[in-house]
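Lab notebook, bench 4. The sequencing result for the construct came back, and we need a structural model before the next group meeting so we can plan mutations. Quick request posted to the team channel:

Model the 3D structure of this chain.
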Amino acid sequence: MPRSAQDFPLDHLATAAGAAPKYCLSFTAASLRPELATVIAGIYLEQGDWGRTKAVVLGSNALQARSASSAKRLESELRQRLQRLTTPQLELLAKGTRDERTAMAWLAVLKRIQIAADVTQEVLTGKLSSRDPVLRRSDMAAFYEATERDHPELGALAPSSQQKVRSALLQMLREAGLLAGKAGKGGTLGTVQRPLVSPQVQELLEDDDPALLEGFLLSPAARPAKAGKTKAPAKASAKPAPKPAANTAVKAAPKPAAKKTSAARRKTA
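Done. Here's the predicted structure in token form:
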């Protein structure tokens, strides 16, 4: 699936006027929701067209929404995320393990929601690098304060909408496995951690754009080697040695001589 330059979530791209592109802030209509993203991905793989996929999802209430308006909001937000994924990524989202489906849902978020990518790169990566994995409200407050300089659309939100954006981001980080634990006393929000990334997920990220590994708190330069390449020498040396000596020894000791001697004695007698 072809992608434009703005589809890369970890690049801080600028417009022709020199200003940062506006954040997409409509994502509060849906959190990570990997189980619903899986449903949409499966229908798309059957239909092969996003327009028909939308019609099937809404017509059958595939997302099990309580109202038509809720269904439309969910479908629209999730579909716009999934449209950024490649076909192999959609296939893994539809047919992979639970952790792989979660990873693909998070990848779709990274590709569409720039603020999620920025939080991961600028805040979470920094926490791990400084060996201080505890995420605090002060960390997030400093991020939002600095970010509003380039993204005044954040500051233009009503206080209630700002709170929704911040809460939705934290919830997605927890659902994606990048933040563990609940908010506690002293202004703590949880502990930053690297999520589980299977070899299949890692391969799809590398094939797409190695920089996407940073969205999973992984360094492209420090990724482990693929298992298939390390096992090749072992196969060459694992062949058992033949044992011809033992077989030769057995064949070299027949006992026909004794019978011949007995026959010779009877003939002489």
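The mean pLDDT is 82.
Will bring this to the meeting.
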